[in-house]
C-alpha cells in the first residue's frame, strides 16, 4: 500500500470500531432493567441495578404477589442443585451419601491443610535461624521447605485447572512467606 492510503484505512477502521461499539452499547443496554434503559451514562454501578430490583421486590410484596406462592410455609428442598446438570447432581448426591466428595473439594482440603502445616514448619525453622541455633540447620530446613512449597504450588495449579473460574487459588511465594514470618 502507498503511504497515502493509510489515513483512509484508519478512518475506515475507526468507523467500523465505532459501529461495533454502538452495537455492544445497545446489547448491554437491553440487559438493564427497563427503568434505567437508555441511561447507561447515569448508571454508576451495579448497586444502581440492585436498587431497581429491590424496589421491584418491595413493590411486589406491598401488592401481595408473594402471598399465594406454592410451598408457602414449607421448608425449602436443598437436596438438589438447580444450576447443576441433573446427571452431575445425581452423581454428587451419591458421592455425598457415601462419604465422598468431588476431587476439587478433596484437593482444596488437602491444599489448605498442607499450607497450614507448611507455614507452621516455616515458623519453627525461622525460629532456629534467629534463635541463635546452628545456621546450617536453617539452610537444610529452608531447602526442604522450598521443595514442599513447589509441591504445594503444583497441587494448587492442578486445583485451578479443575475448578470454575473465580474459585481458583493463588500460589505461594517463598520470599513473601518468609517476610510474613519475619514480621511476626
Description:
Helix 4 packs antiparallel against helix 5 and helix 4 packs across helix 6. The protein is an all-alpha fold and 184 residues long. Helices cover 66% and strands 0% of the residues. The chain contains six helices and no strands. It has two domains: 10-63, no CATH class; 103-183, no CATH class. The termini are far apart. It has helices spanning 6-31, 46-62, 86-97, 103-130, 135-162, 174-183. This is DnaJ homologue subfamily C member 28 conserved domain-containing protein.
Task: Give the secondary structure arrangement, pairings included.
Layout: H1 6-31, H2 46-62, H3 86-97, H4 103-130, H5 135-162, H6 174-183
Helix pairs in contact: 4-5, 4-6
Tally of helical segments: 6
Q: Largest sheet, described in full? A: none
Spans of at least 5 consecutive residues whose pLDDT stays below 50 are none
Q: What's the overall geometry?
A: extended
Amino acid at each position: 500500500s502507498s503511504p497515502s492510503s493509510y489515513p483512509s484505512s484508519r478512518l475506515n477502521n475507526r468507523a467500523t470500531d465505532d459501529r461495533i461499539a454502538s452495537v455492544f452499547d445497545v446489547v448491554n443496554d437491553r440487559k438493564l432493567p427497563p427503568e434505567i434503559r437508555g441511561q447507561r451514562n447515569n448508571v454508576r454501578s451495579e448497586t444502581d441495578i440492585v436498587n431497581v430490583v429491590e424496589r421491584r421486590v418491595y413493590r411486589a410484596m406491598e401488592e401481595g404477589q408473594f402471598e399465594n406462592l406454592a410451598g408457602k410455609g414449607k421448608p425449602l428442598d436443598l437436596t438438589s442443585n438447580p444450576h447443576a446438570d441433573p446427571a452431575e447432581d445425581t452423581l454428587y448426591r451419591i458421592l455425598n451419601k457415601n462419604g465422598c466428595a468431588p476431587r476439587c473439594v478433596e484437593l482444596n482440603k488437602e491444599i489448605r491443610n498442607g499450607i497450614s502445616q507448611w507455614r507452621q514448619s516455616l515458623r519453627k525453622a525461622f525460629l532456629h535461624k534467629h534463635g541463635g541455633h546452628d545456621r546450617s540447620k536453617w539452610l537444610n530446613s529452608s531447602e526442604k521447605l522450598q521443595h514442599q512449597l513447589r509441591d504445594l504450588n503444583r497441587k494448587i495449579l492442578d486445583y485451578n485447572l479443575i475448578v470454575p473460574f473465580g474459585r481458583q487459588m493463588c500460589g505461594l511465594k517463598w520470599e513473601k512467606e518468609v517476610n510474613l514470618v519475619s514480621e511476626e
